[in-house]
Amino acid sequence: MGLLRWGVTLLLFTLAFTYLPRLFSPKLKPHADGYCHPKFHKVSDTLRENVESGKELGAAFAVYHRGEVVVDMWAGYADEEAGRQWSRDTMSVVFSVTKGVAAVTVARMVDKGWLDYKKPVAHYWPGFSQNGKGEITVEQLLGHQGGLVSLGANKTTLRQYRDNQEAFTRRLEEVTPLWEPGTAHGYHAITYGFYVDTLVRMADPNHRNMTQIFREEVAEPFGIDFHIGLPKSLSHRVARVQFMSDIALIISSMKSWDLFHFFASIALYPESLSAKAMTVLETKNTALNDPEERSIGQSAFLGIGTARSVAKLYSYMAMGGSIKGRQLLKPETWKLMTSSLKTAQDLVITTLVAEWGRGVGFRELPHSKYKGQKVIGNAGYGGQVGYFDPVNQLSVVYITNHASPHGLWDDPRFLDLEAALYDCLDHNIQGRKL
After folding, report:
1. 97 near 57, Cβ under 8 Å?
2. Which of 1, 267, 285, 375 has its CA at a distance of 20 to 30 angstroms from the CA of residue 28?
3. Nearest to 334 by CA among 311, 353, 306, 315
4. Contact (CB, 8 A) for 341 and 361
5. What is the three-class DSSP state of 342?
6. CA distance 381 to 253
């Protein structure tokens, strides 16, 4: 009984330490602003309700429909301690939503003939062929099929990756896959960026890195306010990410068996694929509030921009790769990128039956009228979501600087907005022009 009492006391102390300060801290004035087309007013109403109830503390939500912006809203605080509200140009770390942006960049390289999805990675990066990786294709690497979720026993840092590029490349080359490549998939949460970014640098005719390629081939030509490696001169625009403590994360995840199982696997089973995939970095999450860390390009999780920027990029994808004669991707490349590679139990997120394509995931819409229809993109740590819906010609992005335990399209704040959006689409928009 003594051990039980000690455990209960510790739990109560942790809860009090985590939540009591919030009860006595000054309440910040609810804040929501931005543009919402009248036919989508329910989205605006939902966001404002969530802010006023305290459910939403800091976020932006953007939607393009048929190539035109219909929702561009922001709410809450970019920095609670400083009292700095979200504004139109506030940027935030979007975590794994970055993977989809990187996948579009790779697709642009395919368009230009610099990469071929079907060719082995080793065709562009000969050293990659070591230790059973010689047959891994570009599309298998993008589709989380390579078995490269870990870098081995020793963790790394973003600065090691940036400052010791040759040594880091050799380290990547020496990794042995944790399953037979191509036979299964498991979410490459962190290592996706290390491998994909090195591949594009090897394949680019001028050996530019992902930061440069994205900026010069995507962001600048199409006016996308997004960065994979943020210039420090823009740091004043970035929302401070509010992370949950490890204890608070575990407690909060208890609301969902799938969430709790995932976090418990990482904490209690260090040899599991889940733990290996999620503990690659020594870097603490809070380091992502450091402008120096944010300046390091890493396309698995370190993209920084506005919700509007990703929604604008994905609006091209929602429209088949082109809008009003402006082409992001050729039709044949768009078709490849929007085609599924494999649907199976994920070996890292073991509660998930995942469907992956060439750097993007597929998700069936949960709303009754749209059952069977799939959207394409990536969800990210803390509640982030970015996707495009080619059937309904929508692009939808939710980003937040108040991280939750959610990261699989399942954050209640996002789901509220998505439900309102598709309700508006169902009742007001389908088959008619705005």
Report:
1. no
2. 285
3. 315
4. no
5. strand
6. 13
Cβ 75 vs Cβ 166: under 8 Å: no
What tokens appear for 393 in the block?
């010609």
Helix/strand/coil percent split, the chain, to 5: 45, 20, 35
Q: How far apart are CA 179 and CA 177, in angstroms?
A: 5
Largest alpha-carbon pair distance within the chain? Answer: 72
pTM over 0.90: yes
Q: Dig out the tokens for 98 from the structure.
A: 């970055």
Among positive and negative, which fits the CA dihedral 174, 175, 177, 178?
positive
- How many residues are there in the chain? 434
Tens of pLDDT along the chain (434 residues)? 455 565 556 555 555 555 555 555 557 889 999 999 999 999 999 999 999 999 999 999 999 999 999 999 999 999 999 999 999 999 999 999 999 999 999 999 999 999 999 999 999 999 999 999 999 999 999 999 999 999 988 899 999 999 999 999 999 999 999 999 999 999 999 999 999 999 999 999 999 999 999 999 999 999 999 999 999 999 999 999 999 877 777 777 787 777 877 887 888 889 999 999 999 999 788 899 999 999 999 999 999 999 999 999 999 999 999 999 999 999 999 999 999 999 999 999 988 899 999 999 999 999 878 888 999 999 999 999 999 999 999 999 999 999 999 999 999 999 999 999 999 998 876 555 55
Q: Rounded to whole angstroms, how far apart are CA atoms 316 and 325?
A: 11
Tokens representing 50 are: 């969530």
Asked whether 356 and 362 are in contact (CB, 8 A), the reply is yes
Please tell me the number of Cα atoms within 13 Å of 421 on its side-chain side. Answer: 28
